[in-house]
Give the backbone structure.
Amino acid sequence: MYFGCELLQHNPHNVKKSFDERIPLRPAWVYVYVLWFPLILFFPVMIYFFSEKIYIIYTVAIIADVIISTIAYVIYPTTFERKKPDKGFFGDSLKFIYFFSFKGYNCAPSMHCSMCYIIGYAALACPGLAVSLRVAVIVLVLAIVAATQLTKQHVIIDAVTAIPVAFVSVAAGYIVNSSFTTDVLIGFLGL
């Protein structure tokens, strides 16, 4: 959905503002930015062992997040001109990440940010999750959100618009969790 919706997008809106220029480009943060990928892979496995309920809420929230964000990308595509990083190890790594943005229209809301907010919520809400793991997850998601800005993959409005998307997505998770039994939903998800 994320990449396919770019085929339907036209006339993107530039969302970059003057205050976004005050945030410096720090190409080394690309390595924090990419930690999002293993996080979205391993975090659900971790919370599954501590709370089936939070796992289901999280899973539904992530699905809702992708659907809501994709609809937003098609209805109101957003973009901005990214700064060119300098040559060198970190700059070349950042250019590699920029390459995968294709058109660069899927900016607001930032799914990097909205999923980080959902993960942060799930970490805080998950009973039995050790305090050290909660703190580690919260620090990591906050660092990833910061990395979206410091790598110039996103601007501030992208991170801000991700907040209500995350909230609505988590609410959808609670609605689905209260509507179905755990066994029915786990069967539906094919687990």
Q: What stands out?
A: Helices lie at 30-33, 36-50, 52-75, 89-99, 111-125, 131-150, 156-179, 182-188.
